[in-house]
Amino acid sequence: MLAALPPSATPLGAFHAGLRTPTRLATDTAGRLYVTDPQAGRVLVLDAFGRQIAAHASLARPLAIAIDAQGRIFVSDERTRSVSVFDSHWTFERKLGAGDGEFILANHLAVDPANDGTIFVCDGGANEIKVYRDGTRTLRFGSQGDGDGQFDFPAGVFVSAADEVFVVDQNNDRVQVFDRSGSFRRGFALKTSGMGLGASGRAQGLIGDAQGRLYVADAFQGIVKVFDAQGEFLKTIGQFGRGPGQLSSPVGVAIDALNRLCVASANNGRIELFGLDSYSHLRATPARQVVAAGSEASFSVAVSGTGPFTYQWRKDGGNLTDGGAVSGAASPTLSLSSVTTNEAGVYSAVVTGPTNTFTSFGADLLVLAAPAIAAGPVGRTVTVSSNATLNVAAEGDALTYQWQRNGVDIPGATAPTLALTNLREADSGNYSVIIANAVGRAASGAAALTVRRPPSVPNIDAVALRPGRHVQLTVGGDPWYPFSIDASADMEDWRALTNLLSETGVFQFSDPDPTAASTRFYRVRWTPW
After folding, report:
1. How far, in Å, CA of 62 to CA of 78, rounded?
2. CA 505, CA 503: separation in Å to the nearest integer?
3. Distances from the Cα of 320 to the Cαs of 294, 295, 309, 330, in angstroms?
4. 447-452 and 380-383: which strand pairing?
5. Sign of the CA dihedral 200, 201, 205, 207?
6. Exposed, middle or buried by CB within 10 Å (0-12, 13-18, 19+), for 71?
7. Residue among 200, 217, 222 nearest 254 (CA)
8. What is the number of other CB atoms lying within 10 angstroms of the CB of residue 467?
9. Quick one: which of 8, 270, 276, 393 is 20 to 30 A from 356 by CA?
10. 345-370 b/e with 16+ CB inside 10 Å = b?
11. How far apart are CA 309 and CA 351, in angstroms?
């Protein structure tokens, strides 16, 4: 058997997602990452970009977690000392064994890859490994001690495709290896002083990869130790600290579908990511991009390891080629120029290396027309207790509206039309509207709304006949209100002669159209603005 080579490990950043104390990790075939957070009392489900998909708080203190090939979810509850089984939709199915009290401390779980439905439970409090099939216990092995096949607080379990069961024996600072029936095969020490690393005494979760390498979280030293299946030390990943790529109390590990090592850094409250050998890591800021029509967008995929590598970008599952808005369709970075709604869709990359092909998770691109004002609101003057409506016509996609009075938002005024009812003089002001979407905003000009009390009844104070049979009227009314002077020969058919606005409230008017009629009637009335 050829010796396993040390993996390359590229720091890729971290997932936070509102985590308090991330503890154990598991991944499913769809690429989702499941994180137990005992102090928060919930299990978080994250997508490949670290965005929270769901949160489940049905357990008091969830600790260990595993996902089988059917998507069933196994979660231990430290408080009830049980392991619950849910289907892929989080519908409860059963509890393992006798249910509550079945375990002293079920602190790690592992699914048997060759026997779907078989789950290995690390019961650290009982110093045992317990095996269940369809909810029924079929095997148990281990006891207190430091001999072969004995444990002093087992803290992790992993079942390899080579029919071997690896168990972290924490206080004995070693890993022991068994067959599926629980028979001891061999063991190796986690102490690696020859490599400049002392004993840890706080080894936690572990996971294996397709090359037969074993990754063990060392919570005390803040690193992940890597061994081959025979126990040969290969390297460490990460270092103690709180900075990028550093770990503080790493307690859970998992390898996702993109060949990224995910490490639960409990005291940092985050999941640290490392790309292993040939991996895929889609980068977009943010992963879901919303851009303005006519602008540019780009997506990048990061790959590490022994090449050569080839790239093929896809949109909505179909291969892209260079041309038009697209460039870099066969390169690590895809660029889109002068985008239109035709470029909107889901983008992914297929990366092919000498031994593996990875398909990145999709990243959405949404293309929006920027907001613009086509016609702004028009000002007016109205009377107290009346109603007024202001309108705006806007262009753009997925628009939001916010009306303002004198530059201050009007609560609830978020439609293209602003309806104002039962107005008071205090409602006078400059009204405008902000139009916005994810790619920009536009502001209308201000429309002056003046609310005035109704004027008193106007009077014709005097009538005089001037040379040339011109009639002169002296009219009194409230200043700064518009009035109309009408004339009629029979008091039925009235004709407006003029509209007037007086600064003082008293004004004179001469009828420019004298009549030969023996009778002519005049009236004055106030008119709306």
Report:
1. 6
2. 6
3. 20, 19, 17, 8
4. parallel
5. positive
6. middle
7. 217
8. 5
9. 270
10. bebbbbbbbeeeebbbbbbebbbbbb
11. 7
First to last CA, the chain: 96
pTM as predicted: 0.66
DSSP strand pairing (388-391 vs 408-409): unpaired
- Whole-angstrom distance, CA of residue 98 vs CA of residue 375: 71
Per DSSP bridges, beta strands 363-368 and 289-292 are parallel
C-beta atoms surrounding 515 within 10 Å: 12
What span, in angstroms and rounded, lies between the C-alpha atoms of 128 and 169?
10
Pick from 246, 264, 262: which is nearest to 254 by CA? 262
According to DSSP, residue 243 is labeled S
The two three-digit tokens of residue 272, written as one number = 């640290």
Question: 122 in helix, strand or coil?
Answer: strand
Compute the distance between CA of residue 242 and CA of residue 16 in angstroms, rounded to an integer: 13
Q: Which structure tokens are listed for 431?
A: 């009204």
**Domains of the chain (ranges plus CATH)?**
21-276 (2.120.10.30), 281-368 (2.60.40.10), 372-452 (2.60.40.10), 459-526 (2.60.40)
- Cα–Cα distance for residue pair 53/76, rounded to 1 Å: 21
Give the pLDDT of the chain (529 residues) as one tens digit per residue.
456 899 999 998 899 888 999 999 999 988 899 999 999 999 999 987 788 989 999 899 999 999 999 999 999 999 999 999 999 999 999 999 999 999 999 999 999 998 777 999 999 999 999 999 999 999 999 999 999 999 999 999 999 999 999 999 999 999 999 999 999 999 999 986 544 455 566 899 999 999 999 999 999 999 999 999 999 999 999 999 999 989 999 999 999 988 899 999 999 999 999 999 888 776 655 578 899 999 999 998 877 666 788 999 999 999 999 999 999 999 999 999 999 999 999 999 998 887 667 788 788 999 999 999 999 999 998 989 999 999 999 999 999 999 999 999 999 999 999 999 999 999 999 999 999 999 999 999 999 999 988 888 888 888 888 877 788 888 888 887 888 889 888 899 998 888 877 778 888 888 877 665 567 888 988 887 6
CB atoms within 10 A of CB 51: 13
Amino acid at 489: A
Tokens 């260079």 belong to 322
Calpha distance 31→255 (Å, rounded) = 10
The span from the CA of 287 to the CA of 360, in Å, is 12
CA-nearest of 411, 417, 407, 412 to 443 is 407
Distance CA 309, CA 291 (A): 30
Q: From CA 286, how far away is CA 348, in angstroms rounded?
A: 14
DSSP state of 338: S
SS3 of 239, please? strand
